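To whoever is on call:

I kicked off a structure prediction for a single chain this morning and the downstream step that reads the tokens threw a length-mismatch warning. I double-checked the sequence; it's 178 residues and nothing unusual in it as far as I can see. Pasting both halves so you can look.
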Amino acid sequence: MKNNPTHKYSTLFNVLIVVTSIVIYLVVALLFNIRIPNEAPLSMLPPIYATINGLTAVLLLVAFYYIKIGKRKTHERLMKLNIFLSLLFLVMYVAYHLTSDSTPYGGEGAIRYVYFIILISHILLSMALIPLVLFTYKHAAFREFGKHKRLSRFTFPIWLYVTVTGVVVYLMIAPYYS
């Protein structure tokens, strides 16, 4: 198996996935310490990337439906679109937070705890999601459908949760944007 060219590329992609995930984590972590002066505020981005999250959630469900009825090609196209939308979300999220201060949540009482529970679970699962999506996609690309299916059982619900809670977090904090 070690001399198998597919194994060689698979190993290379594993390394690239880990490195890419770490780089993304570091870039996002730096957001909280770096501000780029911006003459044109990017305040219009949060509702756009929240909409992208909502669209991704819907398309994940549609892609799930298509694989369940055996329409692999349609499922594949939808999943590629979901990966693109998630990348678009990430670029907008980074751009917004590089040019804008974080908005503090202004809710009080029990709803404040609900907000932070949703936010913290959203953040932690979104960190896990990056390598999960990339490894799940890699298995499909390498036609390792057994591995793809096994990993998808974890990736799909986490991805769906992250996209839905992204919209919920936006809706909860939207009244506090300045």
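Update from on-call: the warning came from a stale cache, not from the record. Cleared it. Sanity check on the structure: Helices lie at 5-30, 45-68, 72-99, 110-141, 145-173.
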